[in-house]
Amino acid sequence: MAVQTVATGSSTVDLGPAAALSCRECGHRVPLGPVFACEECFGPLEIAYDFSGYDTEELRARIESGPANIWRYAPLLPVPANVADKPNINPGWTKLVKADNLARELGVTGGLYVKDDSGNPTHSFKDRVVAQALEAARAFGFTTLSCSSTGNLAGAVGAAAARAGLRSCVFIPHDLEQGKVVMAAVYGGELVGIEGNYDDVNRFCSELIGDPAGEGWGFVNVNLRPYYAEGSKTLAYEVCEQLGWRLPDQIVVPIASGSQLTKIDKGLQELIRLGLVEDRPYKIFGAQAEGCSPVSTAFKAGHDVVRPQKPDTIAKSLAIGNPADGPYVLDIARRTGGAVEDVTDEQVVAAIKLLARTEGIFAETAGGVTVGVTKKLIDSGVLDPAKTTVVLNTGDGLKTLDAVAGTGLTATIRPTLDSFREAGLA
Amino acid sequence: MAVQTVATGSSTVDLGPAAALSCRECGHRVPLGPVFACEECFGPLEIAYDFSGYDTEELRARIESGPANIWRYAPLLPVPANVADKPNINPGWTKLVKADNLARELGVTGGLYVKDDSGNPTHSFKDRVVAQALEAARAFGFTTLSCSSTGNLAGAVGAAAARAGLRSCVFIPHDLEQGKVVMAAVYGGELVGIEGNYDDVNRFCSELIGDPAGEGWGFVNVNLRPYYAEGSKTLAYEVCEQLGWRLPDQIVVPIASGSQLTKIDKGLQELIRLGLVEDRPYKIFGAQAEGCSPVSTAFKAGHDVVRPQKPDTIAKSLAIGNPADGPYVLDIARRTGGAVEDVTDEQVVAAIKLLARTEGIFAETAGGVTVGVTKKLIDSGVLDPAKTTVVLNTGDGLKTLDAVAGTGLTATIRPTLDSFREAGLA
């Protein structure tokens, strides 16, 4: 297995097959380091790999005999070869649930699967991306793991840093709901409330990175973003391996910044290039909530640019009004023959209940968005019900209980058989 | 693999190696059926197996090549051989986390592990037991899955029934917190509030089982209890397999009814008898909250009987004041050289935070009880820090957020670097 060691400044970093950072726009390459924007054109930097020397069947065997978490794919990630031996929270290898009951309700005949990332350690897909950022932080000698967050990410960073023995410092709007504060604070890191909204928090974090006070700090979704984002590739790897090393025909992915969808596409392309799956067409569909649907709006209008929106939806984990990777999402949806669609908050709630009622999976609002969009796209004939379809659930319903707060008792009775019968329950 | 088919009344049931029900007190055997108390002496019935014809290495290989859930142990459970092909929520094979940070804080040198059952589909160990009850319900032709519950069990039953396509009807006290009602209701089954407390709910359920209105109903923790309880054996199997087919020296288990602890002991004994682990001494320790510590009280007093208590603790999932299996727990703790200990609610909260801060695991109050008791037993010299020790976390902190509601922001600042420095965070 080729392991690339790259010099950055005075130190050398070992991030496995990660060879350099490469600009997605202009292709300009720089050595691996804690940078995220191209110095030439300000485009986003992403990881360029050296996969040369990989034998397909050797690689497949190595993956299959690897641990039951994302580190089975270490040869394809920006992490050192011994990553599985280090203390981290080992996310991934979540269930791919064959959703036959849901398929019947939606009229899908070609096989419907839910990739259920609520099974991750802090119950969202964020554990996957934070795990990559943690390795980069270690490689660059950072001692504090940080982020701006309004929810899932705060918990993922707090948990990962705790286990790794790093300091964590998470910034959130000071008036966040108490439940979310508790989830973020319980891991014992610094949790700092910023007097302002989420935009103010982000702006402050960018200032901190440029200041001496931020030295030694790895912001998982800012200066470690190129590494962080690669974690989403593992969703693509797992789906294909769990399907028996086969590409799904159709995959429905939620869109917040759009990064997850673009990295899933990158992951699928890598599997094809490495010969791990047969090269045949697949379609990627993006899912948004109507109250924050800048990419869906652009897709339907045939635009290449995404006009920012002010979010107003219960799907808060997807509520990014100005999604950085929006244009790439449009490109991928169009290139693969997919689409981007949105659903109302009412449809989100109905979809959460539909998934729970049919498959026993309690999804976060983001999962309601993907299931709702899947239903809408089938009803409108855009998704082919005769094809193998994978729907992502990226989070846990326990984190967004408010969305289904209307759900309650079907009856209240006295503790007697007569009362039971009167209620028509017999 | 020997599969036993047993005639019960007019039907035959295939529950794999389960051969009969046997009274734990008097040994009286009856055919497999939806009964839970001995007709001779009213003792509890449990499953008697036919494991004859199992070759140790063949069995081990079969388990190791099985699915990454409890069904890898199907040859040792009261389920049909094809159980993994049926729609169920496939719990188990949760992480055994090597807790080196926690070990350092507690002074454990012999290896400390947390068996983290928050990774189950509905985030508690209840998924393991409900999965067994579901197979029994199918075998006996029941069409409704039911239980009395105040929390974790309601969600586990609702989810399992939804996925299996069975009706569910769960009974809860009518004044339960709204969050718990939502978690139980979202799966779409009947959720019935009983005007009364948990005792009233239980009494009503027992009445319903004896009434024609309850025909076709499987109450997972009443008439299906012998099957249900066996699910806890899988915790023992997994711990040993994950340790490399080795018994832990010491294991710390929470006590509610005591059933889990007794079945873990049963599971360990089976592994020894089947030759899957080396036969050497192990100690089982029971953990209770001080506010509901009938077993711990009896253990310390040297009693063989357990005097009921009125529960008053934040560890509500353990708050059974009159634990049915209490005497068996006392027996096992004494026989193995273990102990039963309890901790205060303050110690429970401190232990939840300790586990989160050191290992990034956010435990339910029951996990705070086991970690707290582990610390107390090490401090008092009862647990040997030089031995391999496994601590169970049976649930998820997201379900008992109130317990750590005092956790919050470490600082609040304005979105400026000056404010950041003033707060001493740099």
From TrEMBL, chains A, B:
The modification N6-(pyridoxal phosphate)lysine is found at K126. It is an enzyme of class 4 (lyase). Transmembrane segments: none annotated. Gene3D superfamilies: 3.40.50.1100. CDD domains: Thr-synth_1. GO terms for biological process: isoleucine biosynthetic process; L-serine catabolic process; L-threonine catabolic process; threonine biosynthetic process. Its EC number is 4.2.3.1. Residues 91-395 form the Tryptophan synthase beta chain-like PALP domain. It holds the Pfam family PALP. Its cofactor is pyridoxal 5'-phosphate. Keywords: Lyase, Pyridoxal phosphate. One of its GO terms (molecular function) is threonine synthase activity. The keyword Lyase applies. Signal peptide: none annotated. InterPro entries: Ser/Thr_Dehydratase (IPR050147), Thr_synthase-like (IPR004450), TrpB-like_PALP (IPR001926), TrpB-like_PALP_sf (IPR036052). Belongs to the threonine synthase family. This is Threonine synthase.
